[in-house]
Amino acid sequence: MRYTKYFIPTYKEDPSEAEVISHKLMLRAGMIRKITTGIYTYLPLGLRCIRKVENIVRDEMNRAGAIELLMPAFQPAELWKESGRWDYYGKELLRFKDRYGRDACLGPTHEEVITAIVRNEIHSYKQLPVNFYQIQTKFRDEIRPRFGIMRCREFIMKDAYSFDADEEGANKSYEIMKETYHRIFKRCGFRFSMVEADTGTIGGSYSHEFMVLADTGEDQIVVCEKCGYAANLEKAEVSEIAEFQDEPELPMQEVDTPDIKSIEEVSSFLNVSPKKLVKTLICLVDEKPVAALVRGDHELNEIKLRNLFGAEQIRLADEEIVQEITGAPVGFAGPVGLKIKIVADHSIKGMKNFVTGANKKDKHLINVNIGRDFQVDTFADIRFITPQDRCPRCGNDILFKRGIEVGHIFKLGTKYSKAMNATFTDKDGKEKPFVMGCYGIGIGRCVAAAIEQSHDENGIIFPISIAPFEVIVLPVQMNDADVVKEAEKIYHKLLEAGIDVIIDDRDERAGVKFNDADLIGIPIRVTVGKKALKEQKLELKLRSEKEKELIPLSSVPEIVINKVKELYDSLK
RNA sequence: CGGGACGUAGCUCAGUCUGGUAGAGCACCGCCUUCGGGAGGCGGGGGUCGCAGGUUCAAAUCCUGUCGUCCCGACCA
């Protein structure tokens, strides 16, 4: 490719619309441009990176035996009503009516469509297992799109769906995808971690996320370096440690706490540690009120609570409902005398003489005790893990890290096949629902994550596997015929060798070219300058390293080709 | 949906408080010089100041509304 025949509109300054580094750099490098909130054009350079990631993904999916197809983005509402997600998915599903007034949506994911296809086309266990995948544009009307293409409303995703005859087969398919994902992300040059995750709106029995480790990541993950346990913060289990406090139960007492509501306020007003407080949160679990109890210094994990009840929706009750249930304004709720179901975190079990709200305005209770003053219906793990907690598997220290979710795999089981009546005939002649799995990779997000993970003050440092070009040939003096001639020669030799090379043939000053080459992150730079040329030499520089190397003109293109190979090998 | 910030040239921003001829740098076009880390000179083009009302002799500037953008949160995954 010739720079002058291509289109790479770079910016010198950070655009005001961007906050995080990958977003800034993608705009500056001329990779993407915003059309409206969460909607982007991939400019030629950005598209090249997208295609490189796609090709890695395609290559590895094919190797794993998955079969590529392409489903429509346009999806009729009927399918979503069959699966039950038309009502459940919420506003994130981009809905519309066609000219006849029929409900439809733009697909945020394709469980419904693939299940509809498979139930019509696959009828025998002999055709199983099978794994279909596609690389396609998805639509999710995110409530708050941000960070450029990291979280946007229209994005390219690889999604795959496996169908098996039984649990065992489904587990095998899941394991194959796990392995495949490790290979893919390795080839993308990521430092990443696979973590246990919640299944969210996709549903199913269990799932893992693949997180690229980066400080700016949206997700918090918890890892144990000793045993390898790793989980999304919201999923991370808390081990049931019962710290029984050995003290006599004191008489419960009501105290005045005028306008003292928050944990901090109560704690300092009564001069007790937040660990002596119990928070009572009134939640609506599928619209039924439940009181959730956690220690003052802990946070309720609503997802755990939702999963405990197997509920679809959960939310904190608003002021009116709290008033109705507790008889007091928000801030004074307590378990004593409550008529609704009470769920308490394990950490409450051993507490004695703690503080709670009194269900009266401006009153709290001190020296409250379980069993004597109120009953707990269920003890469960319903809080977020904290850095003070131990690894739920091995009991060692845990670390908190941040990550960018680039892949997510789900064991779906028969959730969709049952709901949509997708069955096959098994060996024994019986009709059975397919056991499914689904597997996603955010293609664009991979590009953003790569930048987030690897950049410096001059710009992007792409791993060679997803860089827009592998090599840039940079003639320094465009007014020197020899320099231009040699640069052209090298460019053509590399092209012939099958290298993805660009020559910066612009009549620009050297500084401009160097800065652009650094900004867009081309891994290998071959600089042709008249000084070195006099000695029959060229300069070779890796974007990832500071040092330059002079190489003999006669050794090109071999040295460069070897360098390319070397960089690829480092990603295996 | 709540809180905050912002909207002036392609980009980054000044000017708004205190109303009075719409600016700078970069980018773009032409000429000259320069040529290994975002060059310099001279000349030039480009903006209904987000939009709509209002106040005023006069509005980028003050008031009201509205749209859009970004950040934080809620929500969602």
The CATH topology of the largest domain is BirA Bifunctional Protein, domain 2
Q: Low-confidence parts lasting 5 or more residues at pLDDT below 50? A: none
The top-level CATH class of the largest domain is Alpha Beta
**Annotated CATH architecture of the largest domain:** 2-Layer Sandwich
Mean pLDDT, all residues: 92
Largest sheet: 9 strands, mixed
Query: Roughly how many Å apart are the termini?
Result: 27 Å
Q: Can you give the helix content as a percent range?
A: 25-40%
| Secondary structure category | alpha+beta
Q: How many alpha or pi helices?
A: 15
- The rough form would be described as globular
Content of β-strand:
25-35%
- The total number of structural domains is 3
According to DSSP, the number of beta strands is 31
Q: What is the rounded Rg? A: 29 Å
- CATH homologous superfamily grouping of the largest domain: Bira Bifunctional Protein, Domain 2
Characterization of this structure:
There is one protein chain. This protein is of the alpha+beta class and 572 residues long. The protein has three domains: 46-237 and 400-452, BirA Bifunctional Protein, domain 2; 253-380, Alpha-Beta Complex (YbaK protein), CATH 3.90.960.10; 469-569, Anticodon-binding domain (Rossmann fold). Helices cover 27% and strands 28% of the residues. It is built from 15 helices and 31 strands. Strands 3, 7, 8, 9, 10, 11, 12, 21 and 24 form a nine-stranded mixed β-sheet that branches. A hairpin with a 5-residue loop joins strand 30 (537-542) and strand 31. Helix 1 packs across helix 11 and helix 2 packs across helix 11 (443-453). It starts with 20 loop residues before the first helix and ends with a helix. 42% of the residues are buried. The mean pLDDT is 92.
